[in-house]
């Protein structure tokens, strides 16, 4: 099992992931990271916020880009170097997010791939837009 090398990638190549964001996901993420902001955890507090209900942590949703990059495209052996994200819409508990990463440029000399990273909700509204830079596995690493 190995990821794609830079030679196996091409501009326009993409990978997808779909995940329902559950109440448990939010509580586990809060516990792991220590981000106990009540807008994520407290229904009453969140009902008085601009969102009027609890929202998922932005880091929880953007972390799904890592899932795709590290397991699908490029995949196993990938080193995640950089992520820029803009949070454009909240993700609520029980929303289903659709993650798409797409190769936008390749630098074979430096062994770097740049990919757009977009998360949408079940209404096809963008919730996060951004860009990642990764180092795909090298040929010798992918043959092990």
Explain how this protein is built.
With 144 residues, this protein is α+β, with helices and mostly antiparallel strands. The protein has one domain: Hotdog Thioesterase (Thiol Ester Dehydrase, Chain A), CATH 3.10.129. Helices cover 26% and strands 33% of the residues. The chain is built from five helices and five strands; from the N terminus they run E-H-H-H-H-E-E-E-E-H. It has a five-stranded antiparallel sheet with strand order 1-3-4-5-2, covered by helices on one side. Strand 3 and strand 4 form a beta hairpin. It is elongated. The model has no long low-confidence stretch (mean pLDDT 95).
CATH 2nd-level architecture: Roll
The tally of structural domains comes to 1
Q: Which structural class is indicated by helix and strand composition?
A: alpha+beta
**Unreliable stretches, pLDDT < 50, 5 or more residues?**
none
- Major beta-sheet overview: 5 strands, antiparallel
The DSSP helix count reads 5
Overall average pLDDT? 95
Reported by name, the CATH topology is Thiol Ester Dehydrase, Chain A
Please outline what is shown here.
By secondary structure, the protein is an alpha+beta fold. Helices cover 26% and strands 33% of the residues.
Essential attributes:
144 residues; alpha+beta; five-stranded antiparallel sheet; 26% helix
Secondary-structure map:
Elements: E1 14-20, H1 23-33, H2 38-41, H3 43-47, H4 58-71, E2 79-87, E3 96-107, E4 112-120, E5 126-135, H5 139-142
Antiparallel strand pairs: 1-3, 2-5, 3-4, 4-5
């Amino acid at each position: 099992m190995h990821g794609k090398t830079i030679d196996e990638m091409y501009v326009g190549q993409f990978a997808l992931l779909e995940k329902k964001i559950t109440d448990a996901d939010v509580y586990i993420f809060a516990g792991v990271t220590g981000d106990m902001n009540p807008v994520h955890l407290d229904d009453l507090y969140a009902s008085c916020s601009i969102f009027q209900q609890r929202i998922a942590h932005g880091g929880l949703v953007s972390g799904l880009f890592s899932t795709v990059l590290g397991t699908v495209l490029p995949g196993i052996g990938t080193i995640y170097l950089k992520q820029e994200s803009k949070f454009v819409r909240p993700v609520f508990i029980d929303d289903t997010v659709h993650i798409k990463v797409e190769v936008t440029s390749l630098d074979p000399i430096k062994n770097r791939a740049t990919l757009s990273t977009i998360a949408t909700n079940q209404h096809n509204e963008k919730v996060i837009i951004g860009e990642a830079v990764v180092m795909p596995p090298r040929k010798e690493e992918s043959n092990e």
